[in-house]
Amino acid sequence: MEEEITESLLEKALGADLQIGAVQVLGSKRTRPDFLEWILRLSGEGDTFGSILENLTEVIEAVKETDTFESVEAFLEESKEQGKADVVFSVEEKQRTSITLGTESGGSFGDTTVGGSFHIRNVFGCLETLRANAGASPTSVTSSASSSMRSKNYFGLEFTKPFLFDLASSLGFRLYSSEEKLSYTLDKYGADVILSLPLLTLSYEASWRNVGQAPSSSGAKIMEQCGHSFKSSVTAASAIDLRDNPLSPNSGLFCSVKAELAGLFGDARHFLHEYEGQLHLPLGRSGLVFSSCAKMGMINRLPRSGPVHVIDRFIVGGPASMRGFRSRGVGEHDGSDPLGSEFYSTAFMGIAIPIGLSGLLGKVLAKAHVWGMVGDVSSLESLTPKVLSPTSWFESTRASVGVGVTAALPIGRLELNWCHVLRSSGSDREKNGVQIGLTQSFS
Fold it and tell me: Whole-model pTM?
């Protein structure tokens, strides 16, 4: 009886008419108080005590995600105006600058650079962030005839303005440059404008690329790619991430879709689309976790355009895309250089179990896992016969299996695997034995 009375009184209190009066901010050194008030009113002021509490909770969570504050609290005070309550924010700001180490993903296939970032928080007092990041990623690319060292250097400068239209929208600007070395050099200089909305990210990219310094020993296909090119593209991407931990998931699912249209200006003219899905299931109370991941991508030439440039194709291989093969090692090569593909598909299945150690290994969620992978790459011309004759898929399918250990480090997901390739193509670069990978998340 007492519980029913309490619930009734609580419902009555939450449904009571109430509006927001004045907004006050305590502890703010660089944050503009009027901006926090604008965010609160942007979320919807509410017309009842319950709706105001709900909006305050949403605002606090959104503000915390900007990584500007050590703590954010809010409470209501009686207002001088009848039927209203004043909102008081109590905040503690983080240091304005910070330096962090981590990983940067350069694409879908494990082009992960390890480096550092310098952050400036709250640039103009509206929770903006300015970040300068630099990194490098040396990766060996080996063939039976030759061996070369591939390296990548990266620098980027990013500015992000949160809360553009609502609590879940933001606008970002990025300038970047990168240099990659195989047997030739690839220089990129570009700029992005990125609009993030709920469940959708829209971006425009303009980049100048130069393939140069190819030695006379390079194949004819690589020599044809030498020179300057310009890419102007619009990209739409959407992702749903319900994993409990992106680095070492025990349950949940993840799915993403990406579409890119290049050809507004410049000589890069194509339509690219990619898809990814993940499923992670705990197997009872045993501690075992079943994980699966499937990816597929296709790039189509636009009418009245030439072949897709090598630097725009899918280049597969390595711990983030096809375990058991060297980085960029799956598919046709020209000497030691990968030529990429216009279509790819991969599928991963594995079972992991926590190692259950204390101390450092316990903190990084160390797990042992056994896994298997299949995948394929091809041109669009060779894809058509496979569609007409499904049995022909197996003729070019690659397959690998392995066991290993994973860990969720502060800089990314670390995998130490022993791999064995079951099936490969003559042009592939296998990596039987020990393979180490560092990626931004499970993939």
Answer: 0.84
Cα–Cα nearest to 19, from 75, 89, 87: 87
Looking at the chain, the whole-number percentage of residues with pLDDT higher than 90 is 47
CB 16 within 8 A of CB 51: no
| Listed residue (63, 65, 80, 3) closest to 27, CA to CA | 63
Residues in the chain: 443
Cα 239 from Cα 116, distance rounded (Å): 26
In order of 237, 258, 280, 295, the CA distances from 255 in angstroms are 11, 10, 12, 10
As beta bridge partners, residue 186 has 180, 211
**Rounded Cα–Cα distance for residues 418 and 62 (Å):** 42
Instruction: Tokens for 374, please give them.
Output: 């299949």
Residue 245 near residue 412, CB atoms below 8 Å: no
Q: What is the pLDDT of residues 152-172, one digit of tens each?
A: 788 999 999 999 888 889 999
State CA 245 to chain mean position distance.
Answer: 14
Residue pointed to by tokens 């970032």: 117
- Rounded to whole angstroms, the Cα distance separating 175 from 226 reads 24
> Rounded distance, CA 287 to CA 284, Å?
7
Q: Tokens at residue 206, please?
A: 């303009």
Enumerate the β-bridge partners of residue 159.
130, 173
Least confident segment among 261-265, 306-310, 430-434: 306-310
How far is C-alpha 58 from the geometric centre of its chain's CA atoms? 24
Closest CA to 323 of 419, 197, 442: 419
Between the alpha carbon of residue 129 and those of residues 43, 65, 124, 171, 411, the distances in Å are: 21, 12, 9, 11, 20
Q: Distance between CA 313 and CA 300 in Å, rounded?
A: 10
Chain-centre distance for alpha carbon 75: 36
